[in-house]
Amino acid sequence: MQSTTPTQQATATALPDLKSLRLPANYGATLGVKKLLTQVPVGRPKKPQFFRAHAADQMTFPAMLLEQKESRENYLVTPDVAQEISELVRPVQLYAAIDRQNNVFLIPVPLPGEDGTRNPWHESLAQAVEHAKRKWLRITANMNVGGYDVFEAEGPLPEPEWPAHDIDALIEVAFRGRIITDLDHPTVQTLLGRI
Amino acid sequence: MGMEAFTDGIILVDFEFHPVSGREGNLPTPVCMVVREWPSGHTQRFWQDELQQMGTAPLPVGERALWVAYYASAEMDCFLALGWPLPANLLDLFVEFRCQTNGLHLAHGNGLLGALVYFGLPTIGGEQKDAMRDLVLRGGPWTLDERLAIVDYCESDVVALAALLLAMQDRIDWPRALLRGRYMQAVSRIQRNGVPLDMEPLAALQTQWSAIQDQLIADIDQDYGVFEGRTFKSSRWEAYLMAHDIPWPRLESGRLDMSDDTFREMARTHLEVSPLRELRSALSEMRLTNLQVGDDGRNRCLLSPFRSRTGRNQPSNARFIFGPSVWLRGLIRPEPGWGLAYVDWSQQEFGIAAALSGDSAMMAAYRSGDPYLAFAIQAGAVPKTANKISHSFEREQFKACVLAVQYGMGEASLAARINQPVARARQLLALHRQTYRQFWKWSDAAVDEAVLGGRLWAGFGWQIHTRDELNDRSLRNFPMQANGAEMLRIASILLTEAGIRVCAPVHDALLIEAPLDELDRAIDTTKSLMQEASRIVLDGFELGSDVKEVRYPDRYMDKRGVVMWDKVMNLIGKPTLACPEAARRTSLRPATAPVHSL
Question: Å from B470 to nearest chain A CA?
């Protein structure tokens, strides 16, 4: 049966330099697609969420926050307005943070009071955020001790890939439509019982 | 580079031919040939008796000549049948038309007539073409009028080819088009070789398949009770599932999902389903009457190069021995004194993804030799000292995750596949994204390119228009599949031109054959050239390969088909089959010859 298939002939011509014909798989290179930063949540990391805090001081932002627990909304209040409603706002330091899925968020850490002290929860959170500048952590509230338990990832996890946005850009996205610049703001009016 | 480079001429060619003895699977017999020089239009017509007298083509075939054809592997089949040297440069306008229009809707298809219509060129009628083709396939002798009609018809195709070349010449991507033409020559050589089959069991299967089916159903269905005659009753299957508390996927309509994919997936986690799945597969895919086998016992069929959207070959499942159920591959057997080798690239898609995306972690995982375990280590899920044995469970899960990413599976499908909660599947997929960030960035960019740029391409110019293709899974998978196809094409060229006898390309593998005393050397050459092909496509990144060899009298066997093969072969020897002659064929049993699981 084999005899019906003749010995194959090899063509005499040389192969061209095939590598020189190769086209790069640089998809998207000329299209300039980039991921837009559309959401920056503000709040503590969730219980199962490993996170890192940005180590640079310029990636923090001192702010006065008005927290609406019912609607789970945070408002950024300008200093002049904050003076007028000091009993409603809380001074915080906002820290840029990122989780393992590259989601960026801001962690508000309450600042010490006038006497220089913080309650244990806030102190515990501040310590965790400081630690998260170097390690991947997750935190869980521990009611018995009045603070957060901190869990450090044991694996050799890669360093976070921070987006190329400065803190002002993060603040702008995080508080888009939620910046209070005068006392006529509906939220303030409601809290003051004026409407 | 352009057509001006071909100073010895540009020759348009077409053959008419039919298989020897009119039997599909036999080698072609050229009936006539027409060549037309371009652009002069000087035409020569040759009848078969003249062709047989010629030791070479009537016009130059060297480096400075270009031959042009439509679906050129057929013309090259005739060159080989006549013992002529193949042209150094071959342009296949079918392949170029496919490449230029892949992904577009073509109302008239991509045959010669379809291409002519696409460019607004005049055509002969499809009915007339069919009639002439039938006349050729009928075989001789032909009357003088018939001969004239056949040659006229052949010439009309060459005239059409000239018009098509004029329309397409500015769109030709030289010299990648010539590389594709070169592949069509490799295809022709491979088709000519074909795959050696063991004719005795094939004949037994073909004559007794009806009785075998009944016996298989009787044997296997006694545990299920879901067949009525040869009909699988879904209502009975539903009752079985309820009785055995097996949750089965359903379609949106609420009906049970009866696809083979679902049976295959469910059989992984519910082993009791496996025999029934094999039976259903065997019954539905067993179309041996269409398997094209020549008088010499070799399976030969069109490999249908460039037919799939990814540029892979797409031979008919019914005609190609690697098409039907895997157990039928047991029919593949080297001839006396010969051996076969099945050589495939190791984890080809993973390697391509790693190299093209430039993900260093992924490349390191591939180079480790066990990318699945390496992934688990890189993700921090197992210690660095882990190995296949110490962490086989974790390795299987990470392997399933890698494959799930390649197939575009979601977390639910992956969970079902690994028989774990969805949360575990979600975690694995997240680990893949975290571990191989550069790959995902590149994969996302491919989708952006497809959606915004309107096309994707592979390393040597195969492309797809993606305006109408918004399937995220297909778009992400295209670069791996299309570059895998490029790699196979280049390997096929390198191997066939080095004189290796390639019997068949099979997705990411090549089946070769050689006399037993040359087999080891042929395997070494094959591995080496396949590695070279990977380096060419992946810019220096090398893929390894795995080899399984079969030496006469052993037969080839896919490990997934061993059980069914043995079951069927045992049935052939049983007197319970309706055909009494079958009972005497005890020599067909496979047991004595060792089975090589591939």
Answer: 16
